[in-house]
């Protein structure tokens, strides 16, 4: 075997993996390992999955009962207060006036709270002495609710007088105005039927001259904010003409159709509203005619059996061109247009300003009453005429339009549309009831529930690579699906029809049955979408498999749950085998005692043991995983995982215990393995069953889940290949690294190997640069350059690339199309590099990535002269290329970055098949209907990006703790006099400004301004283990490639 292959063998050091792939009989101390492989398409297993349906139903019903208890207390307080029987007043302070030391941080609420008390917020017109007093009984029942159902979040009560009462108490930084009557949850509870609202507002010169335009705009904004995503909205601004938003790509519907009141649409209409300037004279006729046309052109909502309330909200100062319009003509127009819609439109009018004439007031009042209505077409619902003379109390005045729409019986809870919690709980829904004693509306009370809490146990169903679960409601709105962002990760809320994610005809049949609140099973062949690695760089792949659907309606709720399983997935049970950890070290090293600690990469670390971090898959309930790490919880984990007895734990899964014990065997291999020790940053192994083991030991971020990271899926998809990733910023804090990984299989499934997990190591990115340039001296020639490319076209190494090793957080990988246009064009034209796309439903974008097809050539020529050689590195996912410089070819990579993706992505300006960088463009999307225009054969869904990890340590004051600790290893960095020999060592950094090689300096992570770089000799006490010097690779020439590589022509 030639020198280069031997170098790769050293470099990839994957010998540890073989011990896991093919364990010998004595590998676990002579105990026979009995592995039972069960397919779980059986009815019995499917039934067991639906224990979660029962649990979700119980959770929601408990919340229904909790909000009912609040209602009963409030109505009882009302009667006591009305009949002067006396109530115990609660001394509720304004949330903004409470003391900071009243609060402690809560992991449940992700903010500081006071669980002992409530607090209040006031609207501008709220008067303390006019209110039903807030009682101790209200506080007590809210505390009782929280104690009995810990998944309950915020509990609150909004009154018709403009008071907002919240439990638990939370500090507000300022005493800003908050009016609960103005919020969607309040309006939706009072008027629970969905609404079609057409806002018609005056933009004439008289409005502008009187200074009333700010009131008009604020009034319109107040109306917009009361709407929820089930409602639809349209807007008309009028003077002598009637205008509506012109729209843009995907939004042209705003001109003549109603749009669902999603956050995105509301934001767009608000921006348009703010561009309006008052001018000209006003005429009501054209405005009303256009308003009625919106209802006709929009039609009914498809597949929505509920009738919708149609409302025109009309705002004017009453000054109009009477020569072009008269009272009788306006009323006749309303009569004719509403008759065409069977008198289903209600009109509410608002008179803006103080000096409105009596005639103007009468016109607006008659419009609201529709005094000329044709009753033969059906009864009308009279609206109201309301004066707005100033901006004072504007919110309560303008938001009261829905009082004419109230249709509640007061008996059934209203589950609001999902929305984002402002404290960081992610996507939540509100369960609300109106407070309506003796036919008088006092207000609305609600309890917030976290949708993450509802679906967390469904999300954590790990049944292999393909099986999954999803939840939807009776409107086919997606509550959870693995192809949507998890609720906790929502930024802007996405209201997505489940049919966009379940597109096959058979899938749509199941979805239709779920809408009807049925339960059942169905088996058919369908397409599964899986990530090829990092979605934004690697895209997705699809595979058709036989799937079995189990679905069930959750009684008493609008939700249905489905579980999808396949024959290819397995449920692993290790029975009657005593597997336990000899020494379990939890990753929170600040909570672990009895081991020697040191510092590495500016982190608290240990070289004595590997450490284990548990993910949510190790726990029986997500609520257990969400609990904060404490000395007590660490002890609980340690006692169970080291216990020799075989039994079920109340929190942790037995399979997690057994898999953690198996992976412990890697620790001895890692500690005793010394080859290339200077260049390896971390060694780790992660599986599907809830744990990742890391050496040297360090504390990982709480939200780190290896199964969501790009390296994991890239390795899984590459199957038997060693996977090498492009450079990236290490989530553990070690700076810019490259991962080398391979999958670990269950050996007993030779015919259809099942991947248990992924074993990997991280190296400093510059080590690849070092070995390539040492092996191929021609890479340093002025007329040549070299590169290593992965199967998505991203560069693991390029001799002319700057990988931002020093200090720049915006680390991204270069793509072959950016750095080597001529090579890229050849690959694309020959069909070796193909473009694929997927739809990112979160950002409403279509992402285009490249994929290298199998069958790569050896060389190419331009103008009869050799230009480049390129070969596949056998047994890996990468390709090595050496080329001559000088050919002036450019791919289409416009100098405009696309936002939101954390790496460099370009706006697409090329046609498919042309040479261009990975790019992103707007997806085909109808904003008004809130529908993606995909069809069954449109681009696949992108797999959601994992949550941002960040670099904040979970350990409080970690830098203070490690200050006096020794370094874990002896790094003789100062002896390295060149960047090339310095930067390949895992704890050494070359400080370009001063030309020195230093240990633990020039880091990517942020450091304190007081930190100093130690440029002295790196010798330490005998506690430190000297590491081997870097092995010098043998040098081979380009002509040796054919004997060492798998050549694909």
UniProtKB/TrEMBL annotation:
Residues 1008-1035 are annotated as: Disordered. Residues 1-23 form the signal peptide. Pfam families: VWA. GO terms for molecular function: voltage-gated calcium channel activity. The keyword Signal applies. It comes from the Eukaryota. Keywords: Signal. Residues 196-405 form the VWFA domain. GO terms for cellular component: voltage-gated calcium channel complex. PANTHER family: VOLTAGE-DEPENDENT CALCIUM CHANNEL SUBUNIT ALPHA-2/DELTA-RELATED, VWFA AND CACHE DOMAIN-CONTAINING PROTEIN CG16868. This is VWFA domain-containing protein. It comes from Paralvinella palmiformis.
